[in-house]
Amino acid sequence: MAPKRKATSKANGEPPSKKPEPSISRAPRKEEQDTKDDPSRTTTVDFDHSRVEEQYGIVQREFYPPEMSNERCERYNNNEIPRPIEILEQTIADTAEARAQIKPGEAVVHWFKRDLRTHDNKGLSLAGQLAKKYNIPLIAMFIVSPQDYQAHFTSPPRVDFELRTLEVLKRDLGEKDIPLFVETVEDRKTVPARLLELFEKWGAKHVFCNIEYEVDELRREAKMTKKCLERGIDFTAVHDDVVVAPGQLHTQQGKQFSVYSPWSRAWIAHLHANPDMLNAFEAPGQNPPTARERFKDIFDTPIPSAPENKKLSEEERKRFTHLWPAGEHEALERLERFLNQKIGVYKSTRNFPAANSTAMLSVHHSAGTLAARTAVRSARDVNSTKKLDGGNEGIKGWISEVAWRDFYKHVLSHWPYVCMHKPFKYEYTNIEWEYDADLFDKWCRGVTGFPIVDAAMRQLNHMGYMHNRCRMIVASFLAKDLLIDWRMGERYFMEHLIDGDFASNNGGWGFSASTGVDPQPYFRIFNPLLQSEKFDAEGDYIRKWVPELAEVEGKAVHDPYGRGAGVVAERNGYPRPVVDHKESRGRALKRYKDGLGRETA
């Protein structure tokens, strides 16, 4: 079936236009790919630019090549191509001796990325310790990259949250006479050169940062390690964004885990065997008194405003500032409130979106204002046991949810092609998806006629956030009821979530679309009505976010047109269902089965 309409989400977060025209050339073009024998060398291969992945905005051609082949994914799985994290780790090992010989310079630098906190920050702590040892100033820095924001589909609310957090961080560091340098670099390709220029300007011989696990970032850190060494600079990238670093956990066969349950048992066992991994890293100390005068220009320079491609309106800025106060102090206060008031019953209440029973800390994990290590340690410390899988059921359950974040970053590191627009189960590429712009637009705006779906999408569009149970419901609905390519939903989430995290978002969408790890067989299809009745039994969540149904009484709120409340719904402008779930389920089963070339189990 040919694609029906182009359904590209715009950079500003608007839903796709209804009568778009394809804008991508259909002529094949030569592109560079790693060679089989030597990944550092390249060869040219043909790519067909008529692929739907380009036409519908799944692949941004200005930043990335088209979707890679299944054969190349298989080569990653067969260890025929080194993974970016393996290249980084090998680079770190190969340069360790030479880097250890570098003597201290005039300053030490910590490069902030998604670790915007002073508390329990490994890279920052190591930088602070070295600066203190040699009595030289510590300089902190952050680069605002509009092109990286666009390449990663970072939402405007997320950018706004980062910039507001940087204001808090600048004040906190300033109290210790530590300058925070923040600069906008328009061209993402020039960021490494600009970093080197700044390191040399400041006379820094040691630079620290925490590792990010996406492909581009891993490759960049490997290059920075080598380029800095060529200039006599020790660039040290360390694991901090996860509790247990990728590569530390293996199956009995020595392989990486692709299913959460056995992985989590190994994760817990590893932490029980190494309890010091949960210890906090100390914050940096006071800078030498000369630092404030020496770096006066940095102290006096304000945090830049959001790039044009990620600006919010004034109303949006006020709304998100009210909903999501920024900074690590807010993160730690939220954590404390949750541990004191809600965690005990978390396991029994976490699936009910109207219950307000979750920690609402995902934005802080995403921006790095709260370390996952801090969250797990703090939860453990309020339990009746030091065992992460013992004691209170609520505490055990919440620690397990934090562990999911680690799990998806382990997956991202070992199966890097999920970062390249491929499903973990790359054979699912053969499923024939729909690209109906009208249906996608209705899903985006929350006007599908399925109340629980519409409530969740409206919450996302207003808050930049959606309850986790609802994320699964709307993802399953898009992929299996509408049969729309799940990667379009994945992009829409990233462009609107304030807590957008690539690994967790990709993992969640793969789970719901049955294309990812921890497999849900494709014939497990959420029934939105049953999900609604089970997890929003009184309809409070629906009535809050779908005011057209506020007057509908009782169970009819879950299916107004099927349960006698159609007159009220129609009068208030609520739409009829865009599809019949039973028919859609049958269609999805056939489409998945045909795409995989096998019968259902």
Report on the architecture of this protein.
The chain starts with 28 loop residues before the first strand and ends in a 5-residue tail after the last helix. Helix content is 46%, strand content 7%. Mean pLDDT is 90; it is low at 1-45. Strand 1 and strand 2 (42-47) form a beta hairpin. Among the domains are: 84-248 and 277-292, HUPs (Rossmann fold); 420-596, DNA Cyclobutane Dipyrimidine Photolyase, subunit A, domain 3, CATH 1.10.579.10. It has 26 helices and seven strands. The radius of gyration is 25 Å and the shape is globular. The longest helix has 22 residues, at 393-414. Helix 16 (372-381) packs antiparallel against helix 17 (393-414), helix 17 (393-414) crosses helix 22 and helix 21 runs antiparallel to helix 22. By secondary structure, it is an alpha/beta fold. It has a five-stranded parallel β-sheet, with helices on both faces. The protein has helices at 52-55, 70-77, 84-100, 122-134, 146-151, 156-174, 191-202, 215-230, 260-273, 291-294, 296-300, 314-323, 328-341, 346-349, 362-367, 372-381, 393-414, 437-445, 451-463, 468-481, 486-496, 502-512, 528-535, 540-545, 566-571, 581-596; strands at 29-34, 42-47, 107-111, 138-144, 180-184, 204-210, 234-238.
Short description:
This is DNA photolyase phr1. The protein has 601 residues and is an alpha/beta fold.
List keywords for this structure.
single chain; EC 4.1.99.3; Rossmann fold; two-stranded antiparallel ribbon; DNA photolyase phr1; 601 residues; alpha/beta; DNA Cyclobutane Dipyrimidine Photolyase, subunit A, domain 3; lyase; disordered N terminus; globular
